[in-house]
Amino acid sequence: MASNLNVLSIGASRNIGYFSAVRLLEKGATVTFLLRSPSAFDSDTIIQKFVKSGHARLVKGDASNEADTERAWKEAGAVDAVIFSVGTYPKFQLSQGFVQTPVNLVTQCFLNVLCTIPTYPDAPQPKIIVISSTGLTPSAHAALPCLLKPLYGVVLAAPHKDKIGMERAIAHCAGWAWDPTADGPVSEEEILGEGWTERKGLPAPGSLKRMLVVRPALLTDGKCAADEGKGKGYRVSETELGGYTISRKDTAHFVVDALTRRWDEFENKRVNVAY
């Protein structure tokens, strides 16, 4: 059940973060959104309903700014869980191909989240769910359907480089092994920043508990098949699935299901989700 959950949502103005937040709100949770433009929800009747009830809190700020992120933690109060779904779309430039600006947006936003985690004297460390992507590691790329390999290798190369940086930060703080050959090489100065392991507030190696990394297949805007009970639904596995797609709404379904009902099954794991 989610009725007593207090959730901080970073990157939830749309897509997976948004759909996850709505599902949680409808289950009775309280969700604090960190938003660059809270006005984005001005005409959103669903969110406004929960704003009026006090279950949705809108905090103006940018996760790429550490002070804004720290303020979001404070305004949220004692947080039970964080859903981090920051992402961006690459743009095509004739001289460089598909690029992302800044190149390390996701990684730096997530480092800000890590460096500002409060210590709750009477509560456990918050559960943290991050949205990553399939196809990041060499083995994951090899398992992709052949038709998707050019898309992942060219169009999505820049955002995936950023996601690898985020996962590297998670592995460091959670105490997970990291093999650059198997898990993916990281340009630490470019993506993580020089001296990133010495940043003030960064959890010590092995001290970050209660993590879940979700790696969805190619995302679509389709319906939530899990809600409709059609077909076999989506698949979840720590091993590569080789699937083509999954909808953002079904990914959100898994996020909320894992958080509210199946946490013991998925805690401290990296899982793939696909049809």
UniProtKB/TrEMBL annotation:
Superkingdom classification of source: Eukaryota
InterPro entries, A to Z: NAD(P)-bd_dom_sf (IPR036291), Polyketide_Oxido-like (IPR051606)
GO molecular function ontology, one term from the record: biliverdin reductase [NAD(P)H] activity
Annotated coiled-coil segments of the chain: none
Family assignment from sequence similarity: Belongs to the avfA family.
Protein name (Swiss-Prot/TrEMBL): NAD(P)-bd-dom domain-containing protein
Organism: Mycena sanguinolenta
Lineage: Eukaryota, Fungi, Dikarya, Basidiomycota, Agaricomycotina
